[in-house]
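Fold this sequence, please.
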Amino acid sequence: MTSNKRILFVAIASLGGGTAIAQPIPDPDGPANPEPAAPPPVVDTTPVVPPAPPPDSQPTPIPEQPVTPIYEPYQTTALERLGFSLTAGGGVEGFTGQTLRSTTSPGGNWDVRATIGTKSILGFEASYIGSAQAIDALGLDKNAVLVGNGVQGALRLNATENTTLQPFVFAGIGWRRYSVSNTSTNTSDVSGSDDVLEIPMGVGLAYKFKGFTLDARGEFRAVTNNDLMPAFDASSPTDKAPMHRWGANANLGYEF
């Protein structure tokens, strides 16, 4: 009986001209309640889609921060801390002794001064000094002039260190050479030239504005080693007329 079933199955497949699908035919001799055939396994035919590549990662731009320049603190020099000035000016001066007061007239003076220590309590001044005044003595031309040129150094004591107004006092030592000029002959008791040692001292007031400086001062100059002319009241030929001087002047310049 089983052989007949197989023959029938092949015949049906041949007549259909297609693929035979095996369909179970109940076997009349088989069990009354056959177990159902197991279902075919389920195959997942869903196409596998590869994961999308991540988008090109671009770094988040960092905004540029303004760069603050770093400045090194300015280092001042010792000269800048002390203060340094160059000034020039002039004024008037004359002799204090009776003999030369009656022989000469008050005249002009001038100077060029370098000062170190204009911003500190203690300073130092170095100066070129000059003067000129008329001199009238028996035996001199009427147009004779007594000219002085010299140098001096002085210590300066400031009342303040670095202020707009700066009072000060000063004292020092100097050398001056006097000579009688503008005369063709000299038959007087006045020497043609004289070198003297001076000790200047005085008080002054400086005014400063945007680097410019103006100072005015009054001074007294004690003089020694003088032999320009004899004193009127000399008791001997070796007695010389005193040559102490007074003066007042103003200087304008610049403070560095």
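The chain has a mean pLDDT of 84. The beta strands are 84-95, 107-116, 122-134, 145-158, 165-181, 193-209, 212-224, 245-255.
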